[in-house]
Amino acid sequence: MSHALQDPSPVRGPKSSDSLTRGGLPRWAPAGITALSLALGTGIGAVAGLDSKVQWGLIAAALFVIITYTASSVIENRRQAKDRVATSVVWVCFVLAVIPLFSLIWVTISRGIEALTPEFLSHSMNGITAFDEGGGVYHALLGTIEQVALATLIAAPIGLLTAVYLVEYGRGTLAKSVTFFVDVMTGIPSIVAGLFILTTWNLALGFGPSGFAGSMALSILMMPVVVRSTEEMLKLVPNELREASLALGVPKWRTILKVVLPTAIGGISTGLMLAVARIAGETAPIMLLVFGAQLINGNPFEGAQSSLPLYIWEQYKVGSEASYDRAWAAALVLIAFVMILNLVARGIARWKAPKTGR
Description:
about 0% strand, 15 helices, flat
């Protein structure tokens, strides 16, 4: 009986090698491993005679992951090491994605800022040959603004209403057919859209080159992006909001207008700006339908016009030092144009978004 009342032998915990509470890497470890990886990658690249700095960076990235896993396995445990490796891979991919972006912006700013003057923004190429100094981008900037605005006025309402139909009303064969054709339109090359407008608007109906013809081609490219982005944003609106509005006796169309769309306005605006950025740099439809002009043409419905992408291509094609400077400056103007549109869209979305605070 006394043996039965004795305490059993204590249960031993897991071995120290399997413990989740072993010592961890210090906080400065990621920064130290990054510095060590960069140093080793640079040294290996220099010793191996690799001329490309990109190769040095890839070697450093691989070393960063390997050293992180090794150090974490020795000091912590394999489970923590795998977690750190996954985090390291995410950071490496992020850096590899950001470096080209920053490189593009840096090169464009450094090359384009030299020729970006008030005269460049306020003058056209009237009377200036491609090999001469001077000239400006005003006529191309005006053409881009008018063409993108007209394309947005055409594509945005159609794309928005199509997305509302697919999410709120679409059922059966018609909705599936619309979804299928939207997916097909997403992959249409820009030159095909330009050829379609050329054969219908210009050749069949007899209209000449104009900014409006280019806008119609751009709207074809813009529509599927607007439909897809708006559709995804509308799907994110909780059904409880719709049900609460309908339970109060509000008609469905008014629920969509007053509840669903204001709730998703932020994402819709962002998707619209992505569509604008998609068409702002297109050159092929403009070459086919707008033709380009060196003079200022403020009427997008008559006569040839220019645009920033076409202007950049024309200046780069010349090959002179002055034309290269104008091309880089126009590229910087195009980037700034898209960035300003994005900032305006975010401001509108924040202004129109429903207030959640008291």
